[in-house]
Amino acid sequence: MNALRAGRWLAAIPMAALAIATVYPLVFTANVAMKTRHEYVLDRFAPAEGLRWDAFATAWASADMGRYLANSLIVVGGAVALLLLFGSMAGFALSQLRFRGSRALYLACLAALFIPFQVIMVPLARTMGQAGLVDTYPGLILAYTAQFLPFTVFLMTSYYSGIPAEIVDAARIDGNSAYGVYGRIMLPLGRPALLSVGILNALFCWNDVLIALLLMPSAEHRTLMVGVTSLRGQYSADIPTFAGGVLIAALPVLVLYLCFQRQIATGVTAGSTKG
Predict the structure, then answer these.
(1) Which residues contact 135 (CB under 8 A, 6 or more apart)?
(2) Where on the phi/psi map is residue 176: left (φ > 0), alpha (ψ -120 to 50), or beta?
(3) What integer pLDDT is reported at residue 257 of this predicted model?
(4) CB–CB of 245/137 below 8 Å?
(5) What is the pLDDT of residue 274?
(6) Is residue 160 packed enough to be buried (19+ CB in 10 Å), middle (13-18) or exposed (0-12)?
(7) pLDDT score of 234
(8) How far is residue 225's CA from residue 144's CA, in Å, rounded to a whole number?
(9) Which residues of the chain have pLDDT under 70?
(10) What burial letters (b/e) apply to 245-264, b meaning 16+ CB within 10 Å?
(11) Which of 57, 61, 169, 273 sits 20 to 30 Å CA-CA off 176?
(12) Of 168, 248, 230, 208, which Cα lies nearest the Cα of 75?
């Protein structure tokens, strides 16, 4: 019993250290945002003398973060919708439909996961420019879809591979076509994985800076994360305002994760046992 308790304490120590390392930057940023410029210059690590919301109001109003937030919602919503549609259809086809080249296609999707975006950055920018999709919502939505589709296909294929083939065979015997099996059987059964992959892709797209900066150069179409990076230059001497902008950009992600953390863990691990 003593050995078991000692083992638990040994496991708890690194987990507690990891939790502190994760939470501390958020607490530090919130504390800085509550300070005045004078307080920050005197001691950046000392607790704020009071709760001040001036930094948040200044960042929201002067940096046009309302427009950036709307741009991010449009782009992330469109990209996640396409990713769920194409990813679930591809996952169903690769896991349950046997056709020539399916294995090679699945391996190609896995290989695409290891290609850094920097490798395809220049060809992507040229292609989008030739197609007239630079500085447009559809262009960034399609770029996000292409970038994160291999991950989505991998996760959905792994999840659907764990569904017994007898269920699919029974649906076909009942007269369902491949589209019927997908719509009536696989989509309802795949809700946990669809929820998890949708949230993860939303986080990926929301936190992206490089792709959005490359394909949305004008200030009018900036996403929220790109807008926050511009605050660093605009308020280089006013760190509390910059910290307030960072927290505004991070708040939707934090709320999303706190509300769906259990579904994320359940959906990801549900498809990890078979693939």
Answers:
(1) 215, 216, 217, 218, 221
(2) beta
(3) 80
(4) no
(5) 47
(6) buried
(7) 61
(8) 15
(9) 1-4, 6, 233-237, 263-275
(10) bbbbbbebeeeeeeebeeeb
(11) 273
(12) 208
Predicted TM-score (pTM) of the model is 0.84
Chain-centre distance for alpha carbon 112: 18
The tokens describing 44, both together, are 């950046």
**pLDDT for residue 275:** 43
Angle at alpha carbon of residue 227, lines to 224 and 231, rounded to 5°:
135
Helix (H, G, I), strand (E, B) or coil at 268: helix
Q: Identify whether the C-beta of residue 92 lies closer than 8 Å to the C-beta of residue 155.
A: no
Q: Among residues 90, 112, 84, which one has the least CA distance to residue 201?
A: 84
Q: If DSSP codes are grouped into helix, strand and coil, which group holds residue 52?
A: coil
CATH of domain 58-269: 1.10.3720.10
Q: Rounded distance, CA 224 to CA 217, Å?
A: 13
Task: Please list the alpha-helical segments (H only) found in 34-164.
Answer: 37-42, 54-62, 65-96, 102-112, 117-130, 137-161
Place of tokens 């999709």: 133
Find the angle CA(114)-CA(263)-CA(212) to the nearest 5 degrees: 45
Structure tokens at 26: 């958020």
pLDDT at 22: 83
Residues 6+ apart with CB under 8 A from 90: 109, 149, 153, 156, 157
CB 52 within 8 A of CB 241: no
The residue among 187, 188, 200 whose CA lies nearest residue 92 is 187
Pull the structure tokens for residue 102. Answer: 């399916």
Domains of the chain, residue spans: 2-52, 58-269
Cα–Cα distances in angstroms (integers) from residue 47 to residues 29, 31, 57, 161, in the given order: 11, 6, 20, 52
Q: Locate 232 and state its tokens.
A: 């660093």
Q: Is there a contact between 227 and 63 (Cβ–Cβ < 8 Å)?
A: yes
